[in-house]
UniProtKB/TrEMBL annotation:
Residues 128-199 form the Large ribosomal subunit protein uL10-like insertion domain. This is Large ribosomal subunit protein uL10-like insertion domain-containing protein. It comes from Aureococcus anophagefferens. It comes from the Eukaryota. Pfam families: Ribosomal_L10 (PF00466), RL10P_insert (PF17777). Belongs to the universal ribosomal protein uL10 family. Gene3D superfamilies: 3.30.70.1730, 3.90.105.20.
């Protein structure tokens, strides 16, 4: 018997994706539970060019019973409350007002000094991403490239990036100075890739406390 072209086979094991609204609701509930279970809360500024790999190190370095929350500041404000009528804890809506894009929250039972020390311990240089603005020119000087880092097989990669490089005596040689990035000018995705190839880390992961709620008191240093 002919099968209708409109007939569709549906797998009984197919799992529906979680609805966005349900995901947001779960995030808000999880954040509220984390804040209610811990007396102190810190707003941490994290540069938009920081790489996700740094967040894992930050989580593991936090002292005591701590939880790191990343996400949209609008949902964070919903969880904490933005006025006296709906705030999760007394005066915590003041902390909610200090939240901006790029901020993270740390709920903890540890004192401020311990959190600041943990954040300082996580500072580390990292590769810049597209859009990062260098505070100085980055120039590669002409000459031989390290064979161990840059084998001849990378010639095509560097040529694609318009680098003045060629093969001499079985090694790559930069035949002229080459500016990889310019001062005060956002780098492109190609420049970010080139900086990574050249092992040049221009950005620094440097999380810092910009506001706190400790034992019921709000502070914005």
């Amino acid at each position: 018997m002919p099968v209708s072209k409109r007939a569709k086979k549906v797998s009984l094991t197919k799992v529906k994706k979680k609805a966005p609204r349900a995901g947001r609701s779960q995030y808000v509930d999880k954040l509220r539970q984390g804040v209610e279970a811990r007396p102190n809360l810190f707003v941490v500024e994290i540069d938009e060019h920081s790489r996700p790999t740094q967040f894992k190190a930050l989580r593991t370095s936090l002292p005591g019973d701590s939880a790191l929350f990343l996400g949209k500041q609008t949902l964070m404000k919903v969880a904490l409350g933005d006025c006296e009528e709906n705030e999760l804890k007394p005066a915590i809506s003041q902390l909610s007002g200090a939240l901006k894009g790029g901020h993270a929250l740390i709920a903890t039972d540890a004192p401020r000094a311990a959190i600041v020390a943990a954040l300082e311990g996580c500072r580390a240089p990292e590769f810049a991403t597209a859009g990062f603005v260098p505070d100085e020119h980055v120039v590669l000087e002409k000459g031989d490239l390290d064979v161990a880092k840059y084998p001849v097989s990378m010639l095509a990669v560097f040529k694609k990036m318009d680098m003045p490089v060629e093969v001499q005596d079985s090694k790559l040689v930069l035949i002229d100075n080459f500016r990889v990035a310019s001062k005060n000018k956002p780098i492109s995705a190609e420049q970010a890739k080139m900086l990574t190839h050249m092992d040049l880390k221009l950005h620094e992961f440097a999380p810092a406390v910009v506001a706190s709620y400790v034992d019921g008191d709000f502070s914005a240093p």
